[in-house]
Write a structure and sequence with these properties.
heterodimer; A: about 180 residues; Rna Polymerase Sigma Factor, Chain: A; Arc Repressor Mutant, subunit A; 9 helices; B: about 260 residues; alpha+beta; Phosphorylase Kinase, domain 1; 3 domains; flat
Amino acid sequence: MADPINVRRFETLVLPHMNSAFNVARWLTRNDQDAQDVVQEAYLRAFRFFGGFRGEDARTWLLAIVRNTFYTWHQQNRGHAGDTEMFEEEVHSDETSAAERDDGPEAMLVRSENLQQVHEALRRLQLEYREVVMLRELEELSYKEISSIVGIPIGTVMSRLARGRQQLAVLLAPTNQGM
Amino acid sequence: MDHEHASEVLSGYLDQELGLSEALEFERHLAGCEQCQQVYAQHRQLSAQLKQPGLRVEAPKELAMRIKAALPGRRSPWERLSERLRRWTGGRSSTWAPVGAMAMSVVALSWSLSLYLAVPSSEQRLTQELVDDHIRSLQFNHLSDVISTDKHTVKPWFNGKLDFAPPVVDLAQQGYPLVGGRLDYLDGRAVAVMVYHYKLHPINLYVWPGNNAGAVPHIHAQQGYHLAHWSTAGMNYWAITDAGDNELSGFIAELRAHPAS
């Protein structure tokens, strides 16, 4: 496994998906530091299992490992890692740069508030729904890819998405009224 | 398409995941159903809101660096440290250089010592891998790939999937029914897993060729699970369960008392 060709193959195929891996881990753990730990551990596992990688989609393959790593971590930390974590990077700072690009200060304020609320709603969404919604909307994966990452049939992906979106809509109802 | 079916496939339509005929059927329903129109508009808005750039962030640079540094075939941290040390001391010819070098080597020495102490033994690593795998097997509804209480179904299922024939024993009479089997990847190889139950507790029994342990099972606990490890007749066995150690030793005793077929 440690031969240089495999290492280079791993670097070309798997390393480029680190942003995806981090984003998925971040929305699963809801904490930047934990997300980093999960991604690092997932990459170690991915490297260890790389011999079993049969050239299917590397991103899907890696994200499945990230998800498994997260669940192992989640199981071990249940109890002490409560709901107290926050993203370290505050949402406003991200949004400022994004919103500055087009609109005036007023629109920026409205947008920034909205982003904050969407962020919070997604954070509060139950894990089971959060993962499919995030994989679909943020990672823009197909049902087939989500099905292989989460290990559920495509029909279940669809129904979980429906229910997840419904719950998100409820969480966001106060924000979206009058929009 | 009735309303119930339409609300089931609405997400699929929104995500362009429906087949052509189903999509057309859904559109026909949507045209005449105010409720579906409302939900559809709401979910579309939601989808747009979730596409905002601030929700997705890039991986921190230091994470990428840590991961890259951990890959083999790269220069070890030790090599990089000594190179930096050389550059640091070579760059200035001050009389302080030897002192600095000495301080650096003390730091480096204690650091590599702590690394050495922190590296788990292969046994510890394997045990951790087993516990992780056991937990994972409970979580994703993927305890068994072949579900059968019949050893004559479970055993042939492994044919062609492994380069060895795992011994499969049915212990239903003894209170440990066989419920299925699956393949797993452990310690760098494919292994057979037989899944047994004791009351409500699953017991995962991992088997692969080898002679890495003694013949007498040694039971220990990790993270609330009980594990046992032994080797017999050229096979390595690991059993892991959340049941108590008495139940586990009972299981092992029965397993060893009943020849495989």
